[in-house]
Write a structure and sequence with these properties.
CATH class of the largest domain in chain B: Alpha Beta
CATH superfamily of the largest domain in chain B: Histidine kinase-like ATPase, C-terminal domain
Oligomer: heterotrimer
Largest sheet of chain B: 5 strands, mixed
CATH topology of the largest domain in chain A: Helix Hairpins
Shape of chain A: rod-shaped
CATH architecture of the largest domain in chain A: Orthogonal Bundle
Number of domains of chain A: 2
Distance between the termini of chain A: 28 Å
Shape of chain B: globular
Largest interface: B-C, 41 and 28 residues
Radius of gyration of chain B: 28 Å
Helix content of chain B: 40-55%
Largest sheet of chain A: none
Chains: A mainly alpha, B alpha+beta, C mainly beta
Strand content of chain A: under 5%
Structural class of chain B: alpha+beta
Distance between the termini of chain B: 35 Å
Strand content of chain B: 15-25%
Chain lengths: 419, 519, 131
């Protein structure tokens, strides 16, 4: 670029002026020969020209300087958006250029700052959001921890109460267990006694049965005899029936034989003989029957007396059976009771054990609850501390945010050209 | 239903007649002019016609009528029969058989083409037969299936006796052991016995024989009697197909013999005398059987000189002491019944062979034994008829068997309206009259009345003769309503006048049947 | 002649063999009302009805009935059927008897009174039946 220095300019201009004046003077001179008017006119003209040139000249400088200062003002106000016009070609241009450079440098810096500050702002904002979140969740944790704490407090209270109750129960069960053990021992005694009684009864019974067996053995032949007599009687009955039938048959045969007339005579004889035979057998069977009846009668008497003693023994036997039975029932009853009692004892012991176990578990539970409680309390504390730290962070973040906001605000003052 | 039943009976009865008709025609073929045979043939056709008419079997009765017309001519001798005519009649008989069977099976009897042909032939007079119109001999069929057999009575008696023995055998059964009882032996035996009793009961129904068979027993004796007394006699049988109890008939053998003997000896006149009187030389004895609703009516008749009333009148006047007007006022039956009196004997007759008097009481007694009645009809020179009516004894009737006191009795179910339990209350006074127990002379202490049998009169019976009829019986126990085989009460039981018979139950036990008309 | 000999009502009696049909021992007579006391009942034996009578009461002076199942002598003659319950049965005996004699002697010297069935029947018929 052609730089023309101001000086040059001034020289030029002065020369110009001189020329002009000269011109003018020259002109004036022509016009007027008045030197005074000429001078006046030349002075006027020179003055006029000088004012004009001066005015123009200074104006241009002033103008440029004004615009520069105007720009500088704007810059100082923060508006970096306007371009500095590079109008001059003289030393002012240097100024302009320097100025322009300065403005662009400023612009850059400012835009960088803008960027950074924007970013900071963003970061600050997001950090703020995060912190809020953390805050709120830590609030929740806090609440939860509180409620847990409350709960575990309650829990541990309940557990304590329960374990008290359990203790009482245990006491009672122990007592019961003791009592049942006593009962068991007593019933075992009773059982033993009953067993002895039953055994004795059985012995007696056995003995009686032996006696009876003996008697029965002795009576065997008599019974057999009676049985035999019965058999004989049956046979007799059959024989009698037979002879009766034969009798009848022979009667009818004789009738038929008679009807047959001559032919039947021989048959009639036979029939008669059969009849008399039947008659004889009937007689004999009658006799036998009489004898048998006698024997039977005797036998009956013996049997009767046998039966009587048998009945007595039977009665005794029934009695003893009854007693044995009763004993047996007693025994089984007692056994049952004893078994049940033992079962009960067993059951209650088991119960005690289980209760104990339960109690242990409860205690464990209680301990756990307590631990829980404690830990929740710790947690609460921790969360509290944490919270405070977080609060600090929050505060820091807030201040950072504030700063960044400020920054943003500040750099907002600087207007940048639309990019 | 009823018509079918009667049709069945018709077929059965006519089958018999037709069989005899065929036999008769065969016989007459050998002896064309035997008017007796023709009259028999005529009689049989007439019987069939009568039955067919009763059942409105037009076709059959018309054919019979035509055949009958011819027989009448042949019998009267106005036309001489010849072999061809007999053949036509035989064809007619075959046709009748087919037609009766058609009637029974519901087919149309008039559908047989033979009917037209034979009707046409029979429509002409027998001697005006156009011999040329004889058709070709038609095929001869085999005899009809065997549906009846003749059995020896002895065999039936034997069967009955045996079956009863078998039944009685049960009583000899030895006592059963427990195992046997448990194994069902007892129930098997009971079942077995029940079947046996049923068998026995059925066998008892075999004791029926046709009157014809009974009558034919007398053919020879009649012939012999005729010879002995110098008379010409023949024996006719009517209603021979009726079935009657053999036992019953057996009881009538002697009485009938007496009657026939009397008839031949005193009733039928010697041939010459008969001729003189304008009668046929040969006298006719008739044995007729007929079934009325409840009774069997047997008639022994002759066409001789009738019973001489004079000795009877004399007897009544002298021995009984009746006056003439009284005698004349007597109804004819009663008049003649006088001869049945024990002390009556026509003193005129002293022949060795029994006179009228002797033998009559036998007859009277026999009939009384069978709870029957005897009526005597006689007209001078015309003949005599002895009409015996017997209650249809061997029948199987349904009766209510009950116990009263120590007795087991029965009343026909048709006479019992209802059986009710007797409520234990005070005995009403009206019971007295109706108390069967009292009537039967049962000790009231033996009674434990538990049931009342309300009685009714079945339609058509008359009221009993003993005043007010009972309308209910008080009985101790009711055994049941069951079929009873009723046998006539014996002479002794008949004397009580209270019993209609002795009923045999299916298990062989006895219940005495009350005569409801007389209670 | 052959004679069936039995005892009843304290008497020793005999009947002509020709009228004797059977001796039965398993009859159970069914009682008939309005019959006289000696009429024990009727039985149905092998197809026939027999009137059964206490021979002792009818022919003698004491009843022959002792046990449940008495022997019954079944008589059949003419049209009649009758059963007699005796005290004791002697059986079929051969007797030489002049016709018409009532008292006869058997070959072992015992006296028997002969009776004809018709006489028995008449005795029976003459009793009162009904009231």
């Amino acid at each position: 670029m052609n730089r023309t220095s101001i000086k040059n300019k001034m020289i030029l201009s002065f020369l110009a002026l001189l020329l002009i004046v000269m011109a003018v003077v020259g002109a004036a001179r022509q016009i007027s020969d008045n030197v005074i008017t000429g001078l006046a006119f030349s002075a006027a003209l020179a003055l006029a020209a000088g004012i004009i040139f001066g005015g123009i000249f200074s104006r241009s400088i002033v103008r440029r300087l004004n615009s520069l200062s105007g720009a500088a003002k704007e810059v100082s106000r923060g508006d970096l958006s306007k371009e500095i016009p590079l109008l001059s070609r003289d030393e002012i241009r240097d100024l302009e250029e320097v100025f322009a450079r300065m403005v662009s440098d400023l612009r850059n810096i400012i835009s960088e700052i803008k960027e950074v500050s924007t970013r900071i702002e963003e970061t600050g904002r997001s950090l703020g959001v995060q912190i809020e979140k953390v805050l709120s969740s830590s609030r929740e944790i806090d609440e939860t921890a509180l409620s847990i704490a409350k709960g575990s407090e309650a829990q541990s209270l309940i557990v304590q109460r329960t374990s008290l109750v359990f203790d009482k129960c245990l006491e009672q069960m122990n007592e019961a267990a003791q009592k049942s053990t006593q009962t068991v021992s007593r019933t075992v005694q009773a059982l033993q006694k009953t067993e002895t009684g039953e055994a004795k009864a059985r012995e007696t019974l056995h003995y009686l049965e032996e006696v009876l067996k003996q008697m029965v053995e002795n009576a065997e032949p008599i019974y057999r005899l009676s049985g035999k007599v019965e058999k004989i009687k049956m046979v007799m009955d059959v024989i009698e029936e037979l002879s009766r039938k034969t009798d009848l048959l022979s009667l009818n045969a004789s009738i038929e034989a008679t009807r047959a007339g001559e032919m039947g005579k021989g048959f009639a004889l036979v029939a008669n003989e059969i009849r008399s035979m039947a008659e004889n057998s009937r007689h004999s069977s009658h006799e036998i029957r009489a004898i048998v009846d006698d024997i039977f009668k005797d036998n009956k008497a013996v049997l009767a007396s046998l039966r009587k003693s048998e009945t007595d023994i039977d009665k005794g036997r029934t009695l003893i059976h009854g007693i044995v039975g009763t004993f047996g029932e007693m025994l089984s009853g007692v056994k049952q009771i004893s078994a049940e009692v033992q079962d009960v004892g067993e059951a209650s012991r088991k119960q005690v054990q289980e209760m104990r176990g339960l109690l242990d578990q409860f205690q464990e539970l209680s301990r756990l609850a307590h631990e829980n409680f404690v830990s929740t309390q710790k947690t609460t504390i921790n969360t509290k501390g944490q919270k405070e730290q977080i609060m600090e962070i929050a505060r820091a973040a807030k201040s950072l945010q504030a700063l960044s906001e400020k920054m943003v605000e500040t750099q907002r003052r600087f207007r940048l050209p639309e990019a | 239903m009823d018509i079918d039943k009667y049709k069945k009976i018709f077929v059965q009865e006519s089958a018999n007649y037709l069989q005899e008709l065929t036999t008769g025609l065969i016989r007459v073929e050998q002896d064309l002019c035997n008017s007796n045979l023709w009259s028999e043939i005529h009689g049989k056709i007439h019987s069939i016609k009568g039955m067919a008419r009763a059942l409105s079997l037009e076709a059959v009765s018309n054919l019979c009528h035509q055949m009958e017309a011819w027989c009448k001519e042949f019998q009267a001798g106005t036309t001489a029969p010849d072999a061809a005519a007999v053949q036509i009649l035989m064809d007619g008989t075959d046709l009748l058989k087919k037609m009766t069977e058609a009637e029974a099976s519901g087919a149309d009897p008039a559908a047989d083409p033979e009917l037209k042909r034979i009707s046409a032939l029979l429509a002409c007079r027998p001697d005006k037969l156009d011999r040329q119109t004889q058709t070709e001999p038609h095929p001869v069929a085999a005899p009809s299936p065997i549906d009846r057999i003749r059995v020896d009575y002895a065999l039936i008696e034997e069967l009955l006796a045996r079956s009863q023995e078998i039944i009685l055998l049960e009583k000899t059964l030895p006592p059963l052991s427990h195992q046997q009882m448990a194994a069902g032996l007892k129930s098997w035996i009971d079942h077995y016995m029940a079947m046996l009793r049923g068998l026995h009961f059925q066998l008892a129904r075999l004791r029926l024989m046709p009157v014809q068979d009974f009558a034919s027993l007398f053919e020879k004796p009649v012939r012999d009697l005729g010879k002995a007394y110098g008379r010409e006699v023949k024996l006719n049988v009517a209603g021979g197909d009726l079935q009657v109890d053999i036992g019953l008939m057996d009881r009538l053998r002697e009485p009938f013999m007496h009657l026939l003997r009397n008839a031949v000896a005193h009733g039928i006149e010697p041939p010459d005398e008969r001729e003189r009187m304008g009668k046929s030389r040969e006298g006719t004895l008739v044995l007729a059987a007929d079934k009325r609703r409840d009774s069997l009516v047997l008639t022994v008749g002759d066409d001789g000189r009738g019973i001489d009333p004079n000795p009877i009148r004399r007897y009544l006047r002298e021995v009984v002491g009746m006056s003439d007007p009284e005698i004349s006022a007597m109804p004819r039956e009663d008049f003649f019944r006088t001869i049945l009196r024990l002390d009556y004997s026509s003193a005129d007759e002293t022949t060795q062979l029994a006179g009228r008097g002797i033998g009559m009481d036998v007859i009277a007694k026999a009939i009384e034994c069978l709870s029957g009645a005897l009526a005597i009809y006689s007209e001078p020179s015309r003949g005599t008829r002895f009409v015996i009516s017997l209650p249809l004894s061997l029948s199987i009737i349904h009766a209510i068997v009950f116990r009263i006191g120590p007795y087991t009795l029965a009343a026909p179910t048709s006479h019992v309206a209802s059986i009710q339990r007797r409520r234990n209350g005070p005995s009403q006074e009206g019971d007295h009259n109706n108390d069967l127990g009292l009537r039967l002379g049962i000790d009231p202490r033996e009674r434990k009345p538990g049931f009342i049998l309300k009685l009714r009169q079945p339609a058509g019976t008359e009221h009993g003769t003993s005043g007010q009829p009972a309308d209910h019986f008080m009985v101790d126990a009711v055994v049941g309503n069951m079929p009873l085989m009723v046998m006539p009460p014996g002479e002794l039981l008949a004397k009580t006048g209270t019993f209609a018979g002795v009923g045999i139950m299916e298990d062989g036990d006895i219940a005495i049947l009350l005569d409801m008309e007389r209670i | 002649m052959d004679c069936f000999v039995f005892e009843a009502g304290g008497k020793r009696l005999g009947i002509e063999a020709r009228c004797v049909y059977r001796v039965a021992d398993d009859a159970r007579p069914a009682a008939v009302p309005l019959a006289p006391p000696c009429h024990v009942g009727v039985i149905y034996y092998r197809g026939d009805l027999f009137d059964v009578v206490d021979a002792g009461l009818l022919l003698g002076d004491r009843s022959s009935l002792k046990d449940e199942n008495p022997y019954v002598i079944l008589l059949k003659w003419d049209q009649h059927k009758l059963g007699l319950i005796p005290e004791r049965i002697a059986g079929m005996k051969w007797i030489e008897a002049p016709k018409g004699a009532e008292d006869v002697f058997t070959h072992d010297g015992r006296r028997i009174r002969l009776i004809a069935p018709e006489d028995i029947w008449r005795l029976l018929s003459d009793l009162s039946y009904g009231h």
